[in-house]
Design a protein that fits this description.
- This is DUF669 domain-containing protein.
- InterPro entries: DUF669.
- Pfam families: DUF669 (PF05037).
- The chain is α+β, with helices and mostly antiparallel strands.
- It has a domain of 117 residues.
- It is 17% helix and 28% strand.
- It has 3 helices and 5 strands.
- Strands 3-2-1-4-5 form a 5-stranded antiparallel beta sheet.
- A hairpin with a 2-residue loop joins strand 4 and strand 5.
- Helix 1 crosses helix 2.
- The protein is globular and about 55 Å long.
- The termini are far apart.
Amino acid sequence: MANLGGTFDPQQHQPVSFEPLQDGYYQAQIVASSTHQTNNLQGYYLKLEMEVIEGSFKGRKVWDQLNLWNPSQKAAQIAQGVLSSIARALNVGAFEDSSVLHNKPLMIYVQTKNGNTEIKAYKPLGSDPSQASPGRAFAEQNQPEQTPSPQNAPTANQAHLNEDGSPKSPQQMMQG
C-alpha cells in the first residue's frame, strides 16, 4: 500500500490512453539517444527515443534500437543502413555523437503488430510519404557486402572487443 500524501480526485485530471498508434506516417523527432549492451552481452545497440509532434497522437513516444555494434555483420549492416536513412532524412552528414540527430523533425512510418509499434521507415519532413524508403527491409536487401571503412578499422565481429578480448564500453565504441 502507498500513501499518496493527499486525496487524489480522478475528476480533476484528463484520462490518458495508450492505444497503439495506427499504422501510417507521423511527424516526429528524436528526443533522446543512448547506448545499451545487448541481452546476450555480445554487442551494443543505439536506442533512439522519438516523440510524435503533431496530430492526435502528439506527445506519444516510440523507440528504435539499432544494433550498430553486433557480432553479426548482417545485423550491424542493417543498423547502419537504418541510421543512414535517419541521418539523410534529417540532412545530417558525418557525425560522431547521436545528439546531432535530436530535436529535428522527420517523418516516420510506424506499423503495429500484436500491440508492439515498430518504426519501418524514415523520410525527410515535407516529402511525399508514399515515396518513403523502407527502413530495415530496405537496408537488409540493399546493403553492400561491406560498409566502406578505413583499412585498419575492426570488422563488425571485432568492433565490440578490446585488444585483450574484453567487451568495449559504449563510449569506447562510439569513439571508434
